[in-house]
Each structure stands twice: as C-alpha cells, then as structure tokens.
Amino acid sequence: MAHTEPPTPPHSLSDWKVLLPYWRSEDRWKALGLLGSIIGLSFLDVQVAVWFGKWDQTFFDTMFAYRVAACIALLPIYILMTSLSAGMRVIQQYMTQVLSMRWRLWNTRVYLRKYLSDDAYYHLEHGQNRADNPDQRIADDLAQMTVWTLRLGLEAIQAVTTFLSFAVVLWTIGGTLSFVWHGWHIVIPGYMFFGTTISILLVSFVLEKAGGPLVSANYRQQHYDADLRATLLDVRRNAEQIAFYGGEAAEHFRLSECLNRIAKNWRGVMTYTWRANTVVELYTGGVNIVLWALLVPKLLAHALTFGLYSRINSAFMNVRRSLQWFIENYTDLATLRSILQRLGEFERVVVSLPAGGIVRTPTDADGIEIKALALDRSDGSRIADIGSLHIPAGERWFISGPSGAGKSTMLRALAGLWTQGTGHISFNMRDAMFLPQRSYVPAGSLLQALSYPATPDRYARDACEEALLAANLAVLMPDLENEAAWGDVLSPGEQQRLAFARVFLARPSTLFLDEATSALDEKNEADLYARLLERLPHITLISVAHHAALKAFHGQEMILREKSVTVQRLL
Ligand SMILES: Nc1ncnc2c1ncn2[C@@H]1O[C@H](COP(=O)(O)OP(=O)(O)OP(=O)(O)O)[C@@H](O)[C@H]1O
C-alpha cells in the first residue's frame, strides 16, 4: 500500500498499447470474428437508419398529400425495419458481452502470470520499482478496460459510420448556398454539412480547453480510492494487533488522511466536470438554433416541404448525434485513458523489475557456494559484506549477529528476493526450502495449509498425520479436512510448528530457517530441531536465530557484524 503522491500520468500514446496483446493472442481469430460481426451489425444498423430517413420523407409527403391508403401501405415497411433494428441491437449487445468476457479473462490470466512470475508480486511491494495497489489493477482496471474499450470503441465506430452516411445525405439534399457578399458571388456546396460539422468541432475544441485536466484528476482519484481500500484491508487484517494496542485513533487518523486526499482531488474532478458539462449542455440546448439558421436559405427560396424538412432534420440530428458522441463521452474517454495509464504503468514496472548485481545460478552440485557477496540497500548504501563462503553439503550453520546486521537480507539474497549488491550465489535451488519467521498459512482446509506450497493431493493422509505428530501438532489431526482461516486460528508457535511439518513432508536437501522457531518455548524448539535431524540427517541447514541454545544443533557459527563476518566451529 502506498501513501505517496501518484506520479503525474504521462500523456503518451504508448498506454494504448496495453489494448493490443489480446488481438495478437491465440484467441485472436475468435475475437476478431466476434468483433467483425459486431461492427458489421453496427454498419447494418446505420443503413437501416438511413432507410428510416428516406421512409420518413416519403411517409410525411404522402401524409400531407392526404393519401391515407398509401400511408397505411407504408406501415409494414416501418414494422420490418423496426424489428430488424431491434433484433440486431440485442444480438450485438450479447456478442459484445461475450467478447468482453473473453478479453477480460485472457488479460487477467496474462497479468496474473506476470504478477506471479520472477517474484514480481514481492518486488512490487518491497523493491525499488513499486506500483501501488496491484490488486486493484488486476481485479478492477482490467475488467473496466475491456468493458469500457468495447463500449466506447464500438460506439465510436458507430458514430463515425453514422456521421459518414448522414453527411452524404446532408450534403446531397441540403443543396448549395449561393449569395453575393461585397460584390463577390459566393457558392458553398454542401453548406449544411459544413455548418453542422464546424459548429461541433468548435465545441469540441472549447471542451478540451475546459475539461482537459480531467484525465489526470481521474487518474489520481483511482489511486486515492485504492489507497483507502488498501488501508481498510490493513485494519481488517491486523484487527487483533490494533485492538491490543488500542490503536483506533491512529487508524482513524490514517483513514482520515486517505479520505482528505480523496476529498481534495474530488474538488478538482468536480471543477473540470462542471466546466465540461456546461459546454455540453449549452451546446445541446443551442443546437436547434444552428439547424434553423441552416434552413433559412431553403425557406427564403420556398424550397422546403414537410417531408424534406423531416429528412433534413433526421440527417442533421444523426450527424449532430454522431459528432456529439465525442463530446458527451468526453469524461468516459478520459476515465478510460486514465485506466490505460495505470495499466501501462503496471506493465512498465513489471517489465523493469530490479536488475541488481547479485547473480544466482542453480546447480546440481551439493553444498552452497557464495562468492564475494555484498548486500546493498536500494540507495546504494552497504548493509553487509559477506565475502566468499563454501558451505559443504550436510553441514549445519548457525547465523548470528546483532539486529539489523543483514542476516535476513542474506537469506533473501539466497532466495533470490534481494538482488541489490554484488556477488555470486549457487546451490541446488530445486531442492531447497526457506522458512521465514512468519509462515504463510493460507485459508482453506488444514490439509491445504499443511501441504503448502504443494497441492493437498501431493501427500498421503498417513504421511500428513505423521508430520503433524512429529511437529507436536497431533491435536490438529482430526481437523485436517476442516476449512478455516488457519492463519488467524493457529497461534504463532503453532504456525511455526506447522511450517516444520511441511518440511517433514517435503524433505528438502537444503533448508534455510529465518528465526523459524522464535515463537516456541525452548523444549518445543529443541524437539523440532532434534526431529528434523533425525528425519533428515544429511540436510544442509542454515539457521538464522537469536536463541543461543540452538547452537547445539549446528556445526559452524557465522557471526555477521556491521563490518565483518566471522566463521567459527561449534561442538
Ligand atoms: N525492503 C527493505 N528496504 C530497505 N531496507 C531494508 C529492507 N529490508 C531490510 N532492510 C535494511 O537492511 C538492514 C538489515 O536488515 P535485516 O532484516 O537483514 O537484519 P537482521 O540482521 O535480520 O535483523 P534482525 O535480527 O532484527 O531480524 C536493515 O538496516 C534494514 O533496515
């Protein structure tokens, strides 16, 4: 969760690129087929609207000639065209939903893969290049992106088609305007088309000036909204700790800060929205005056029948509606642009994840090889100089040293989570296991939590029960199938014992423990180590711990201090 100011979104075309990958994916043919059908239906719909215009003219001219029988004869065509138009719209909407769902699912799968690859989810939270609230980007932004892009994209295509179709009508039936001005004989062909288009383009220009900053304001709004959600989630997750501390006032302060940022930015959103809305409303109200002004030459020339008026009116309204679409959807387009900017930023951060100087090479050889290892912070300052070490297979090392010396960071570097610094690490990574101080216990069945990170069907039931017994958790055996938020139910000590049960099941050849027994009493701690060595006597073991009693289970001690590393034999 980030409480930093969001970066000003770059106004670049590159953000539109996040829309492209799906259309190059293995699903592209189905997607293009659906899109083609939807666009085809749009074209047909516009064509039906053009027929409607013609029908209007014939119908009203017939009506005002008082030919009742001929009017009635025209009605079946009207019913046919209306049914065709309605049917096409329903099918088009259905297909759009199917396409939207396929696109969203495909995108979300790709984003999840990127998020969970190369420890990106970890680096996004702890690394140098952070992207705030990735959960919001994956869950909400992607869904909105597909729905909004399809809606706005298809409406835009329809608007352009409508504009082109009715522009031709307006040009043809509107005729030519000719007049004399200061002795000049001026002739404007298609003057109705030009009059309508120029008036709307002018409004669009004014609108961009009035509501332009809405894109950035919307971008920031999403950032602040996500911050509020993340802070609330934080309170929910840490409810017990907060309650023990009586931290309600502090939490209230944090949440109020989030809310203040939302309120402050919201004022900007409102200002730009009311400005944009004023321009749109004034234009919507005044647009009829433009039509009347354009009809004046025809009236003066006595060249206007009711049928012709009706057709000009329908063509004018369609051209107006299609151009006005860009005006009316200005705020939605701005929101879509800000969603694309957020996704573009996420893509950029995921692609440029930390390229620190620590190199890890997997090997099949036994033992751990560390060469000239130095651990740095992201600002370049040094945490620890570890130097070169060879830990032969089957050796057990106890890592100690003052708090903050870099013990956990060294384990992170061994796990590939910390790359800032220099040096080279190699060991058999396939067969290694890391146990942090706070083990992750996913919600679900206890069997799931015990088998983690393997799936629950990985181990036989007997083996699971036996592992629980060895970890002094026999009391949990009847609960193996029970579902619960085990991370909240089990005490920290029980969670650490559960983590050892996982080790008994997985039987790694190398095990890294980072204060993995810190919550246990001495007897339980000693029992667990004894059982670990009983079961896996040849394991290569690296334990970071503060409890001196644990030295008895190790052969070497590595003492990490601010400026030096000492290795000494134990036993
Ligand atoms: N994600 C991080 N970003 C910036 N600095 C960090 C990060 N993680 C650790 N550090 C810094 O690295 C240094 C070493 O921290 P580390 O957790 O490795 O110490 P430690 O020896 O394990 O301490 P302890 O015994 O208290 O667990 C500390 O100064 C810490 O502030």
UniProtKB/TrEMBL annotation:
Q: What is the lineage of its organism?
A: Bacteria, Pseudomonadati, Pseudomonadota, Alphaproteobacteria, Acetobacterales
Determine the domain of life of the protein's source: Bacteria
Give TM regions: 31-52, 64-86, 152-174, 186-207
Q: Which SMART domains match?
A: AAA
Q: Report domain ABC transporter positions.
A: 368-571
The protein's location, in the record's own words, is: Cell membrane
Annotated membrane topology is: Multi-pass membrane protein
Q: Which residues form a coiled coil?
A: none
The chain positions of domain ABC transmembrane type-1 read 34-335
Entry-linked InterPro entries: AAA+_ATPase, ABC1_TM_dom, ABC1_TM_sf, ABC_transporter-like_ATP-bd, ABC_transporter-like_CS, ABC_transporter_sub-D, P-loop_NTPase
In Swiss-Prot or TrEMBL terms, this protein is called: ABC transporter
Q: Which GO terms describe its molecular function?
A: ABC-type transporter activity; ATP binding; ATP hydrolysis activity
Any idea which UniProt keywords this protein has? ATP-binding, Membrane, Nucleotide-binding, Transmembrane, Transmembrane helix, Transport
Gene3D superfamilies, per this entry?
ABC transporter type 1, transmembrane domain, P-loop containing nucleotide triphosphate hydrolases
Check the UniProt entry and state the signal peptide residues, or none.
none
Q: State any GO CC term.
A: plasma membrane
Keyword Nucleotide-binding on entry = yes
